[in-house]
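Holo prediction. Input below; ligand is iron/sulfur cluster.
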Amino acid sequence: MTLKKSLTHSSKNLSSDALPVKDKEAVVRILSKRYQKSLVERVGRGSPYRILVATILSQRTRDETTERVAESFFRRFKSVWELDAANVGEIRNLIKSVGFSSQKAHNLKQTARILVEKYEGKVPDEEEKLKELPGVGQKTAGCILVYAFGKPALPVDTHVHRISNRLGWVKTKRPEETEKELKKVLKKDLWLPLNRIFVLFGREVCQPREPKCVLCPIKRFCKQKQKS
Ligand code: SF4
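Structure of the complex:
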């Protein structure tokens, strides 16, 4: 099915549903039906170790590249202990197609060391502990909490920032502000799916320069569309 047909079909079906009264819930529900799994969830297969590595690999890297590199990576390093025993040169060589591969190879090696020494090889499930790992900032920690542990966090990247503003849910200039404001206006049960659905929707439809508003299944909820 073409993108146009698929979205039109999806929109038709969904608009006839008895959607919840609140707009934000309706938006999340509509997009959740369409975007069911993120790259990190697919590659991570529910394993916190895989999700942590995949999230780091995915930073500033195209999805297709991340997926291909992650699969080879996990064939070679099946556990954090195997990664800890590797040398940085081998890791770098294996991940050379992703962005910032040298830095990431060092970070992965150091991260494996910390996990083995401090956490018995387990990935911690607390934001502050995650942020102590090399290469893990606020957004990456949020992704790990959401995708590995199902904990309510709101990782905000450029897609989440842009779409939240276009929809009129927040009025912010930077992703860090957006995270704070979204936490005020969104019920916690909407936090979990938000990163996945907005990242995928932002790549496919609500793109940065030329959003495909004519195909958008949530246009009736969009403040930007109503202004144009
Ligand atoms: S109507 Fe356009 S700007 Fe608004 S959410 Fe949809 S694609 Fe984005």
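The radius of gyration is 19 Å. That is the main takeaway for now.
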